[in-house]
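User: Structure tokens for both sequences below?

Assistant:
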Amino acid sequence: MKFRLSIFCFCLPVIAFAEIPVSSDGLIRISVDLDKDGDKDLLVSTDTKLFGTSGGNWDVYLYTDKYEKIGSIFAHPKAISFEQDIWDLDRASENDSSTGFVRIWVYLKSNGRSGTLGYYVVRKNSVDDIRSISVYVGDPADTEDFGSNIYSSIFSSSPMPYEYTKEPLEK
């Protein structure tokens, strides 16, 4: 799986995230179609003042006739990207009426030189545990800049469009 992930990262068609404000208190809501049914689903962060350099917790909600929480992820809003999970579509059974699943790509910074690159797969009623590898984005020993190239290919733009809003905490 790790080998397949590395190859995929280079051919992934990948919005710059620098405009997402995380410095003030409040919640961030990301609106994106996670189950490919045409309805906007939601990711809702915890209070961003609680975020560390790796980010924070997000609840994942799918919309059918109402929003239902199906799981949670850990992510930083400046290092998140969405793509249709084409490998799972290939494995879907003929009896499966779903139109597909989505991968939520994240980078969780460990320090100035390394972090964890991974993805969560959104299912019909759940979010899978993260599948990840360690990458060395700022490592001077990486003369080919392998880690930085992987990071840039995934997070320079998202294959699936999404919108975000920053909202103050309710008092």
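Moving on to the next sequence.
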Amino acid sequence: MKTPPDSFDEFEAQLRAFQPATPSTQATQRVERVLARPHPWARMRAALQRAWTFEPGPPSWIWATAALALAAGLIAFVYVRQDDAPPVLAPAASSFGATPATAAVAPAAASWETVSSTSVWLASVDEGLVASENGDTVQRVREQFADMVEWRDSTSGLVVQLHYPREEVTSRSVGPF
């Protein structure tokens, strides 16, 4: 009786006797054509390798410097083109005096005009009964808003939108229990 390892020796000998079949000429030609074509990213890879290696020729840092200079020039051009001052924000007193709300004030230049102003109520939170400063019992309610003001410059057509949150706290007097 043979032991299992001996049977594997015979099987391995049979496998070694096998020879791979030669591919057809058509298959060989197709593989050669595919391998002869450059990879789609080969040119990009070569350019990146040249840019990050220091070889004789134009230094790679020239391109980075030129890009930064172009960006700085574009930013300077945009800021120089703005003739009027941007909108100014000033605090305005709340209607109830509890918390000052932030309100937008139109710019002083005569060419700016307010196009629209909206206020959207977001939430109302009842904070319950609290003692006021003078000792009375009051119910405090906190309301939250999202406000938007839009200005347009009549000379250049530039539109400026300002979005800001606003919160109002109201206290309502509660009678005796």
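User: Anything stand out in the second?

Assistant: Residues 129 and 139 are 4 Å apart (CA to CA).
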